[in-house]
Amino acid sequence: MHLHDDELIDLAESVRSEVSAPHLQSCAACRGKLADLRATLASVEAVDVPEPSPLFWDHFSRRLHDAVAAEAPGRTGRAWLPWLLPAAAAASLLLFVVAPGVWRSMGRPAAPIALAPTAPVPPAREMLGELTDPSLTLVADLSDGAGWEAAHEAGLSPRGSAEHAVTHLSEPELRELQRLLQAELAHASD
Amino acid sequence: MASSLEWTLSTSWWTQRAGVSAVAPPSERMTDADADAAALAELTETALVDACLAGRAGAFDLIVERHRRRIYQLCYRFVGNHEDASDLSQDVFLRVFRGLRSFRGRSSLATWLYRIGVNVCLNRISASTTRDKATASVDDQPLTDDRCESASDLVLRKERAAHVRAAIARLPRKQRATLILRTYHEMTHQEIADVLGTSVGAVKANFFHALGNLKKLLGEM
Q: Which one of A14, A16, A45, A49 makes the best mutation probe of the B interface by having the most chain B beta carbons within 10 Å?
């Protein structure tokens, strides 16, 4: 019974002594394998890693320190993570409330734009299709059927806010907004 | 301003506690930064990781200082040149920094660092198909102190080293990693098994086959 691979490795590395493997005395094949392993091991061990200049370590540490500082908590993505969900929810709700009016007004460029919808607004979920973000899905479900009045009552567009300004535009301002949005969409589709 | 106030307070507190009547001369005075560095140096590795996570300045620098040489050598063994080894080492430590929260202390910090290091190196050598500098010519190898060797011995030694590096670079990934960790980093079979996520038996088998394959490859060269 020849020596197993792991036994030969232990012998080659002198983890165990040859005395503990009497088979070696009688088996030239195993002795040959062991000699080969030892010779290869010796040639591998002879290869060293050149030591870099002492200045390299200072430079390395400084470079790494700077790279780590650039990822420090205040500057990483994590810092704004707590704000992301509420901001996304507010933005989504605003989108669902404001988008139908703006969208419909763009579909009829010649007609005067009315703030109040003249036709039933499709549910927000249908307008946006499949949502992958569960938080957005929740917001979409909650805002389905909610109108501008509901959003206003919820305090999402207090007087003086950007939302309030957009949804309370005068007729010339609405026309200008319409023109700008159409120009932007045409630019985007190019 | 705030830091100078803190320094004043802590110094006066220390003076009061120690019963020192006169303030020590500036050369003997220990600043807060020095004291903090000394305190960090006393910490165990797990505590040092906690200090990093708590945002203590210098804690991560100390981790880097303690392990940078071994990680650099590990990377050098995989890629065979200083430039890539330096880049890879930096990459390893950046990943360590990003992943500190996932360090649970079940293995030693060194083992965890090696695990990340081996993964980074194996990913790099998988990605680099054309740019394998491990087989670089003798002339490309960095200079070491060879003053006690004759010119011909030096050339021969470098040629042999280049051949061995090239042969190691051709080994399968796990055999290569096992050989490097066992031979050059003197890790135990169990430590290698922890790093590679395998068993001690598999480590020994990989090592055995690595040496066998290496013998064949060196014979072909």
A: A49
Q: Is B64 on the interface with A (CB under 8 A)?
A: yes
Tell me the pTM: 0.59
Chain A, residues 12-41, CB within 8 A of chain B, namely 12, 36-37, 39-41
Task: Given CATH 1.10.1740.10, say whether it is the number of domain B41-128.
Answer: yes
Put simply, whether B173 touches A (Cβ < 8 Å) is no
* Domain residue extents for chain B: 41-128, 149-221
Residue A101 confidence (pLDDT) = 64
Question: pLDDT tens digit string along B61-91?
Answer: 999 999 999 999 999 999 989 999 999 999 9
DSSP B13: H
Chain A CB contacts of B69 below 8 Å: 57
What is B149-221's CATH number?
A: 1.10.10.10
C-alpha to C-alpha distance for B132 and B149, rounded to whole angstroms:
29
Measured CA to CA, the distance from residue B159 to residue B141 in angstroms comes to: 10
Q: What is the distance in angstroms between the CA of the first residue and the CA of the last residue of chain B?
A: 67
